[in-house]
Amino acid sequence: MSDHGTTAPPRTDHPGAPPASPASSPYTAAGGLGTRLMRRKPVEQLVAEGGRGDGGFLRRTLGMWQLTMISIGATLGTGIFVVLGEAVPKAGPAVTVSFVIAGLTALFSALSYAELAGTIPVSGSSYSYTYATMGELVAWVCGWCLILEYGVSVAAVAVGWGEYLNELLDGTLGFTIPAALSAPPGDGGLFNLPALIVVLLAMAFLLGGARESARANTVMVAVKVAALLLFCLVGLQGLRSGNYEDFMPLGMAGVSAAGATLFFSYIGFDAASTAGEEARNPQRDLPRAIMLSLVIVTALYVLVAAVAVGASPWERFGGSEAALAGIMNEVTGQSFWGTLLAAGAVIAIASVVLTVLYGQTRILFAMSRDGLVPKFFARVHPRTGAPRANTVVVSLFCGVLAAAVPLGQLADATSIGTLFAFALVNVAVVVLRRTRPDMARTFRVPFSPVLPAIGFAFCCWMMLSLGAATWLVFGLWMAAGLVFYFGYGMRRSRLATGSDSHTSQK
Questions:
Q1: Distance (Å, rounded) from C-alpha 406 to C-alpha 410?
Q2: CA distance 148 to 440
Q3: Do 41 and 25 contact (CB within 8 A), yes or no?
Q4: CA-CA distance, 233 to 340, in Å (whole number)?
Q5: What is the CA radius of gyration of the chain?
Q6: d(CA 40, CA 25)
């Protein structure tokens, strides 16, 4: 690999973008097993292939504001609207500290994401970053974690959407969807129909293309921010200082456990990095969008959590994913405000489903283009520039998962996959600094390698705070991923076959 800095990625809305030949890479199929597992994909090749799919090209239509809205859309709402009721019983009023701890963990990783997103602006996010720095096997493991992170979080958030939909229906029309059709098995129901519906609605937007989806998401983000600010204004009226007196009733262990669960709330900040091949100026805009979205989201999370535990005793939390609407009803004594918040939450959580589902499809797009998963995931519709088959398959999988699995199990499983992927990103930024020191970078992590090392340590600490059952699920998921890689991906990898991105996808 050369030591020259990267240039701006070629435009990918026409077929003239020059491919980078895999043959130029020293990491091919030759050599022993160890060599094949460690083969790396050169950064220049990753960038040159940007946007290229089977039958069409992703289109560069997204500016910094839209990228920021994608990250906020994927992040803001999951922790406050959905998981807050799960976290408060673990930490009590100190749940605000749990949000700060989770936010700091995300911040250190966000710095690493910002550097790599500006240096390697492609759709694969941390999967592509590890492919360029630590080799194919590690990249596969990271990508497999991202599938868990994005795919399962779509399902988890969709579960909470049904709770708020019932609040809205009850306050406006006086009826709710029966439990048998609004809760998964294990939560008192048979099938969560609303969860399936919201995933299918998001799929419909995504099939129209990235620009149309980004416009819809921007509107939904504005609604969700307004809804949370409204909650704070109303909730302040019910604030009771006595609710903060026993601030840390379950000790630091409870705060740490809640922080690990609430880290689920921050997984969306990296969603902008999955739009690297559809951003107009990715080197400049991606780092800015990642950092700005994280600051906005963390501030809102801490503010809303502080108001929530101040307005309602922490012992009353739990058992409902629609906790904020219940607090507003309790404070005002009127159902109107809770209904209004529920309406905002219905829109807010739908935007999370939309943007996280978008990220999942783009990660699979990148993995498919590299030959590690079946090639139909990289097929792009020539008119819309959207990977249609990819979007339909992922949406149906996530929709069925949301309809059949309880929320708590989904949130913890998502958190551990996210933390593992973030840990790898912190390592990747240090490796790329050592192996490619002269590469042009539009953003640099300050005090490297100290801050990436802290980010790595935070991720490991929060992973250890998760329960044994979550680790068991993660272990089984990793085992299944390794079976798939050694049985399929390792032999079909484009770096193994030496095939060109165009010809390999025909």
A1: 7
A2: 32
A3: yes
A4: 13
A5: 22
A6: 8
- Contact by Cβ (8 Å): 60, 210: no
Helix (H) or strand (E) holding 1: none
In sequence order, what are the residues at sequence separation of 6 or more whose Cβ sits closer than 8 angstroms to the Cβ of residue 383? none
What does the alpha-carbon distance between residue 407 and residue 95 come to, in Å, rounded to a whole number?
A: 19
Which amino acid, one-letter code, is at 68?
A: T
Tokens describing residue 18: 């020059």
Write the DSSP assignment of 274-312 as a string of letters: GGTTTBSSHHHHHHHHHHHHHHHHHHHHHHHHHHHHHHS
Q: Angle, to 10 degrees, between the axis of helix 136-146 and the axis of helix 468-484?
A: 130
- Helices and strands of the chain, counted as H and E runs: 22, 0
Amino acid letter for position 233: L
pTM: 0.79
Give me the mean pLDDT over the 332-349 stretch. 81
Cβ–Cβ < 8 Å for 411, 156 = yes
Question: What is the per-residue pLDDT across 415-431, written as a single tens digit (0 to 9) for each?
Answer: 788 888 889 999 999 99
- Residue 41 phi/psi, 5-degree rounding, is -100, 120
* pLDDT band per the 50, 70, 90 thresholds, residue 452: very high
Question: Rounded to an integer, what distance in angstroms lies between the CA atom of residue 331 and that of residue 337?
Answer: 9
Mean of the per-residue pLDDT values of the chain: 81
CA distance 83 to 79: 5
